[in-house]
């Protein structure tokens, strides 16, 4: 009788809460993500190859911008990813700060270098495209300037995380900064956009025309998806390594090493 | 809470803190001049580096004065929580039970009075140096009066985050400059509009909105940052 | 008044001290002893609430808490009187006059001097004076005897006895050179987390 009551009184957790609880346990997270990281990498490679084939081999050159328009398949997906990763980092940072879940802290912190890399790709691709189009590598165009500020925000998070010695404290401080940055990011974005129109009028942009031809749109969208898989795969790979480093002296890591699990 | 044990009023604590910080600033009053002197030096470098052409100086004056004010603020910000953090006072504040948010607000307000206000008061002189048209001089002063408190408020978050680092100053500028971008854009746009004889009140409205938002939000973030730094 | 259940704190993913459990009631003195580096200061900072324990439960039902740590929270540019006046105004309520408290801790002669001119022992006395300004049920003292002369040590003991007799409680961390004489003393030997 008693045991029945006990079972009844136990709060019932729905599948999602249970899943989050499980994710919070390092060994479970390590094993669970280890299973599908290879698949994520595989999907990324497949999608990226398909997008590049469509874009670079099959697709036509633009009649105005010529071959240089093909940079769009790198530039635009990278720009989207850099923003999306910042948003996802900020959401995870919030969860990490409020509920003090270490794995989410790690995920947020491992997002920062990936996002920063995408801003660098965006900026590099943008200026390479700018050379034939604008005749110069750098124009203080609204999109590029926003992206540059975004890079600084990322560097701030990474810098703070690495400057503070104690890893948990460093992660919490950097998480707070990420949230502050996320609150400011829309304001920064719109003020830069507005500043640009104020000073020089909008310049030719990579996403120039109002309507984009399907031959350009599809490879771009596929690449955008591929990049998201890259983010997930890279993030989980980094997070697993970080987790191993942090728990080096804990039992479960010793098990992993002894059994030579991947 | 039992009144015999309960802490005192919040306004009393706020006033006591402001009074103490002003007294401390007065005891070290030569240090109050440092940001002001920094500002003067930076501004005077521009004509030397760019040339004394009055038209050119007038054109870049809003940006130059604002950027110099921004740099001077960031330099002075490190002192905001430094001594209270290092001598254990901040821990006592946390333990006192008074909300750290309001303590942070009191410290930011005092800091602006001793470090931000002198910049505002000095700005007419700087504007004259830079050949800023007289009609936009008052707008310059107003944007600084509205903008420098925002700089202090947003900066306090960065200071809170870097205070536990021995040399947090350089990192601080990386953390806060991106957040200062909108203020810089709006404030200089206002002054330029005034110079060109265009309407500028909408920009001042934006600055006021920014000030209200940062007064309500920034102290919370600064308090959270300080708690993390204390741990 | 203050109870801890298996509290731990991790730094660099290593526990600083082994799990701490105790239950402190009014009139109780918890004497935390242990070797250098075993985490006494960290434990006291966890008890103040400044540090968040990594695991375990801490419940503090004390009405008012006062803490004297290694950093004494004294402003060099203010005199002894000014330091204590600020402490009084900041806390808001004071049951004793600042002058009385200064007399009690034996700082009359230097009351008007800037704190930077004080010796280490005098600074300690100034920080201890803050305990007397307002009534706090729980005192958390981290090495209160350090830097004090014989007379100062006796002063701490007198203050402590009066506080505990009045229904207060105290956690006192010391490396063990001197122990206060109080019948309700519970010894707690803190063990370093690395020793596990």
Give a brief rundown of this model.
With 262 residues, chain A is mostly helical. Chain A contains nine helices and no strands.
What is the element layout, followed by pairings?
The complex is a heterotrimer of chains A (262), B (231) and C (196).
Chain A lengths: L1 H8 L5 H9 L2 H33 L13 H28 L2 H33 L7 H22 L3 H34 L13 H33 L4 H9 L3
Chain B lengths: L9 H18 L1 H22 L3 H24 L1 H8 L2 H8 L3 H30 L4 H29 L6 H27 L5 H30 L1
Helix pairs in contact in B: 1-2, 1-6, 2-3, 2-6, 3-6, 3-7, 3-8, 6-7, 6-9, 7-8, 7-9, 8-9
Chain C lengths: L1 E7 L1 E2 L2 E2 L4 E5 L4 E5 L6 H9 L6 E6 L4 E4 L11 H12 L6 H7 L15 H14 L4 E5 L7 H16 L3 E5 L11 E5 L7
Parallel strand pairs in C: 5-9, 5-10, 7-8, 8-9
Antiparallel strand pairs in C: 1-4, 1-6, 2-3
Helix pairs in contact in C: 2-4, 3-4
Textual characterization of the structure:
- The complex is a heterotrimer of chains A (262), B (231) and C (196).
- With 262 residues, chain A is mostly helical.
- Chain A has one domain: Four Helix Bundle (Hemerythrin (Met), subunit A) (Up-down Bundle).
- In chain A, 80% of the residues lie in helices and 0% in strands.
- In chain A, α3 runs antiparallel to α8, α4 runs antiparallel to α5 and α4 packs across α7.
- Chain B has one domain.
- In chain B, α2 crosses α6.
- Chain B starts with 9 loop residues before the first helix and ends with a helix.
- Chain B is elongated, with a radius of gyration of 19 Å.
- The model of chain B has no long low-confidence stretch (mean pLDDT 91).
- With 196 residues, chain C is α/β, with parallel strands linked by helices.
- Chain C folds into 2 domains: 122 residues, P-loop containing nucleotide triphosphate hydrolases (Rossmann fold), CATH 3.40.50; 66 residues, no CATH class.
- Helices cover 30% and strands 23% of the residues of chain C.
- Chain C is built from 5 helices and 10 strands, in the order βββββαββαααβαββ.
- In chain C, the strands form 3 sheets. A 5-stranded parallel β-sheet of chain C has the order 7-8-9-5-10, sandwiched between helices. In chain C, strands 4-1-6 form a 3-stranded antiparallel β-sheet, with no helix packed on it.
- The model of chain C has no long low-confidence stretch (mean pLDDT 91).
- Classes of the chains: A mainly alpha (262), B mainly alpha (231), C alpha/beta (196).
- Chains in contact: A-B, A-C, B-C.
- At the A-B interface, α6 and α7 of A face α7, α8 and α9 of B.
